[in-house]
Design a protein that fits this description.
With 261 residues, the protein is an alpha+beta fold. It is built from three helices and ten strands. This is Ig-like domain-containing protein.
């Protein structure tokens, strides 16, 4: 029973294989899809050669289900709707060396649940035919579609180049503006420091003048007070001496006064 179940799982996990014919100088698309509504966005990769037991040992391009995460060359493109589970790979401008096996692997959680498809590409010379050799995976159906794809790729490259140029110019302008703003701020800061220093010096000078003036007034008042005290002391001494002289004159035998009975 276990052996039968294991064989069933291996059979389910076995990948399909399709033959694809492409023409040199043209594009070719390998079809690969999964049910994104059921599984949600899943990691996947395209491999050059046989798909290994895990991941991709020779990856060409990979995605996390929303955006492209790695790419070996700009010739490998995922032009389908990733949000709809279309992870088909397009190889641009085929060359003879592109012939060989390619593999698509969508990583689904769980044992032996990965979706795997193999494609055997043969690149031929000459004019491209309008019919496809396989229904599931084929090259582009018309030259109009190829021209549109190539023009879209060229337009995208031009837009990217223009965007990079604009970003570079904006970055340079931003750096120059930042330097100018820094210089202006430094000048304003030094100006404020100078104004504050000058104000402090003026305030200190005025305060010092007021202190000196107060000290001079105190000294002047002290001198006046000392002078006034000396004058008062002289007047007091003079008055005491006068009183003493008067008392002396009145003493003794009565002086010049006569006694009247």
């Amino acid at each position: 029973m276990k052996i039968a179940l294991l064989l069933a799982l291996l059979t389910v996990s076995e990948c399909s294989s399709s033959a694809v014919v492409g023409w040199r100088g043209h594009n070719v698309t390998f079809s690969c899809r999964y049910d994104i509504k059921y599984h949600g966005p899943e990691w996947m990769c395209w491999n050059r050669g046989e798909i290994p037991s895990r991941g991709c040992d020779n990856p060409l391009i990979s995605t996390d289900g929303r955006t492209v995460t790695t790419r070996a060359s700009s010739r490998y493109q995922l032009l389908g709707r990733l949000d709809e589970g279309d992870v088909s790979m397009t190889i641009l401008n085929l060359t003879q060396t592109d012939s060989g096996r390619y593999g698509c692997r969508v990583q689904i959680p769980g044992a032996f649940n990965d979706i795997k498809h193999h494609f055997d590409l043969t690149v031929e010379r000459g004019e491209k035919q309008t019919t496809s050799s396989t229904p599931s995976s084929s090259s582009s159906s018309s030259s109009t579609r190829e021209t549109s794809t190539e023009q879209t790729d060229n337009d995208t490259t031009g837009q990217l180049t223009s965007t990079e140029t604009m970003l570079t110019s904006s970055s340079s302008s931003g750096q120059l503006e930042g330097s100018s703003v820094t210089v202006v701020l430094v000048c304003v800061l030094f100006g404020l420091i100078a104004l504050v220093t000058a104000g402090a010096i003026i305030i200190i000078a005025r305060r010092w003048k007021q202190i000196n003036k107060i000290r001079q007034q105190q000294v002047h008042r002290s001198v006046q007070f000392s002078s006034t005290s000396s004058s008062l002391e002289l007047h007091r001494r003079s008055a005491v001496e006068n009183i003493y002289n008067i008392d002396t004159d009145r003493g003794g035998d009565g002086g010049e006064y006569e006694y009247c009975p």
